[in-house]
Amino acid sequence: MSRIKTLLIANRGEISLRVMRTARAMGIRTVAVYSDADADAPHRRFADAAIRIGPAPVGESYLNIEAVLEAARQCGADAIHPGYGFLSENAAFAEAVEKAGLVFIGPPVKAIEVMGDKARAKRAMIEAGVPCVPGYEGEDQNETKFIAAADEIGFPVMVKAAAGGGGRGMRLVESAMVLPDALKLARSEAENAFGSGELILEKAILKPRHVEIQIFADAHGNTIHLGERDCSVQRRHQKVLEEAPCPVMTPDLREAMGQAAVEAGKAVDYRGAGTVEFLLDSDRNFYFLEMNTRLQVEHPVTELVMGLDLVRLQIEVAEGVPLGLTQSDVQLNGHAIEARLYAEDPAQDFQPATGRIALWTPPKGEGVRCDDGIETGGEVSPFYDAMLAKIMAWGETREIALTRLAGALDQAALLGVTSNQAFLADAISQPAFAAGDATTAFIAETWGEDGYATRPPRPDDAAIAAVLLHRAARKTARTAALDVPDELLDWSSVHPQPSVADFETGMVRVFPQGGEAYRVEIAETVLRIEVIAEQGPQVSLSVDGLPASVVFALTGEERVFVKRGVRSFEFANRAAILKSAGTAGGAGDVIANMHGTLQDIFVKSGDRVQAGDRVAVLEAMKMQHQLLAEVSGIVGKVHAEAGGQLASGDLILTIETEAGDAGS
After folding, report:
1. Domain named Lipoyl-binding: which ranges (predicted)?
2. What is the pLDDT of residues 251-277, one digit of tens each?
């Protein structure tokens, strides 16, 4: 048994901080690694020591095995915790850590190798008697072989990256006609995300539940499961809401799924924390999906209902300590639900967002937990995953947990970057979720083909924003002046003299009425707003006699972010809006909709395209995004090259419309 004294966490953000907090509580010295993009990140400052490992791109920093090992040598680490993501399921990394004489806090290399390859994992599970989805996991990767296998399996099928997860390299294919394109896209995405283009096919089980079993094994032959988590609510095959226990679980089904998960772990001589994922159909048949050989993002909901610290268990198992738990010791207590807060735009098919965080206030309260890795003033970069925080709630019942989570989402304030906060609140309020009936089809069934629509700001939202900008300008002016008495604030010799905010939603005029009251005109609407109290970013107001409470953040005097309830809005003077829109181009311009790498471009100058044609693929935040022509016409000048880095708004190419093309 070897006591770990110094632990290097080979990760960043929320993940790194989560591991560090437990390690520090155990008296273990913590070491952070960071890229140039994370030079001032919270995880770097929280650690006892921090070492730079390279530039911002993950391939040159967090995925650079030699750089991580060199950092471990520099700080004298005894062990490395990979967190989740990055190198956490990289067998070569685990092997290199062990060869360097360090403890790898994770499973044996063999387990990572087998379970990290979906094809090998499925073959191993079939041999171990674990129920599996019908499919093709052969070594022959020829397109013809896949087409023949898909015909035999029967459409629809899922194309999946054999070496990865998280929805990357995954496509739902409805017919043989679109299978070749799906294979090409999935293979390209898999190669870029995981360094391997190997694919498998599986029969698509429509509208299942995604239920996973948390297992734990020590070096003394003990393997147990810690119950299940329901992770059915997903977008782009990536989880959004998770809970424990599963709302439709029965004791018999839990026992059967738990035993299957334990057998899966034993089949590869597992050690440490692992998660066996299953699809559960409407008839309560379950099928092995994959095994994640690491701690899961959603592990806190298990901690909340089990009263355990899974990171502590991981470290103790790595030190050689027996689990100290038997299956009969495992008891569920209450219910826990987790909501993943992402920097993304649900109204734009959940595209990742970037920007500077103007304000971050995590929620607090009874039964509420928030794991984050962000702070006010921090930058959300295009280089890493878009998840910023996990907001969780526990209750004696599912109903109590759901009520507490709704309150936590209302209380949390994330301003300055587009997020899914309002979407999360809407999702948990839907009847299907509230009733525990959500499947993997929940988002599609709830919002349909048109997808989620963001609610636009109302006139009173704009009025409040204009008042806040007016007050900010007044404060700045007063600071610049000397000895201005309160009674002269807002005074003008040409009375009444309004301040004007030219928002994208329209012109807003603010007329000070004396004291803390304002008359606000928006088109034909006139509102009376009075500021009742202001404490930091929180303001209590009266709008035409009705109480209102907002949280706000300012960027200079021309831009304000306003949060009312779970919904947040950005208001800027028209000059700032026009300046930003200057790079957006016209309908014939194809632009980068976010920071990223231009993975591929399919047209050249002189080519004819139709509206809706795919013209390029942009890779950003580990996902590939297809860029489509908005108009029909002839490709004019191409301004970018495949492989090049693009900033949001950069012009890629121009399509010149011909007579009759513009309306086609």
Report:
1. 581-656
2. 999 999 999 999 999 999 999 999 999
Query: Please, what's the b/e burial string for 96-108 (b: 16 or more CB within 10 A of its CB; e: otherwise)?
Result: bbeeeebbbbbbb
Name which of 559, 535, 549 is nearest 460 in CA terms. 549
Crossing angle (nearest 10°) for helices 91-99 and 65-75:
30
pLDDT score, position 358: 96
238: amino acid identity, one letter:
Q
Residue 162, Cβ density class (10 Å: 0-12 exposed, 13-18 middle, ≥19 buried): buried
Tell me which residue of 343, 369, 368 sits closest to 421, measured CA to CA.
343
Residues 6+ apart with CB under 8 A from 572: 503, 504, 558, 559, 560, 580
Asked if 464 contacts 510 with a C-beta cutoff of 8 angstroms, the reply is no
Whether the Cβ atoms of residue 372 and residue 419 lie closer than 8 Å to each other: no
**Residue 402 corresponds to which amino acid?**
L
Q: How many residues does the chain have?
A: 664
Match 């809401």 to its residue by tokens.
241
Place of tokens 């799906």: 182
Q: Of the candidates 401, 342, 398, 344, which has an alpha carbon nearest to the alpha carbon of residue 373?
A: 342
Q: How far is CA 263 from the centre of its chain?
A: 31
b/e burial code for range 460-482 (CB count within 10 A of at least 16 → b): bbbbbbbbbbbbbbbeeeeeeee
For residues 384 and 58, give the distance between their C-alpha atoms in angstroms, rounded to a whole number: 8
* Domains along the chain with CATH numbers: 6-105 (3.40.50.20), 134-203 (3.30.1490.20), 209-447 (3.30.470.20), 459-578 (3.30.700.30), 582-656 (2.40.50.100)
Distances (CA, A) of 31 to 88, 89, 388: 17, 20, 21
- Is the backbone of residue 409 left (phi > 0), alpha (psi -120 to 50) or beta? alpha
The Cα-based distances of 207 to 158, 178, 216, 234, 370 in angstroms read 13, 21, 29, 12, 30
List residues bridging with 542 in a β-sheet: 530, 547
Q: What order of strands is seen across the sheet that includes strand 645-646?
A: 623-628, 614-620, 596-601, 645-646
Write the pLDDT tens digit of every residue in 52-107: 999 999 999 999 999 999 999 999 999 999 999 999 999 999 999 999 999 999 99
Sign of the four-CA dihedral 432, 412, 625, 147: negative
Nearest to 565 by CA among 549, 546, 552, 553: 549
Q: CA torsion sign, 51 to 56 to 58 to 59?
A: negative
The stretches of 36-117 forming alpha helices (DSSP H) are 42-46, 65-75, 91-99, 109-115
CA 65 to each of CA 88, 110, 211, 228, 478: distance values in angstroms, whole numbers, following the listed order: 11, 18, 32, 33, 55
Reduce the secondary structure of 380-418 to three states and give it as a string.
ECCCCCCEEEEEEEEECCHHHHHHHHHHHHHHCEEECCC
* DSSP secondary structure, 340-387, as one string: EEESEEGGGTTEE--EE-SEEE---STTEEEEE---TT-EE-TTS-SE
What is the token pair recorded at 219?
């070096």
Between the CA atoms of 534, 538, 543 and 547, what dihedral angle is there, to the nearest 10 degrees?
Answer: -100
* Beta carbons of 332 and 395 less than 8 angstroms apart: no
Listed range (15-24, 230-239, 367-376, 591-600) with the worst mean pLDDT:
591-600
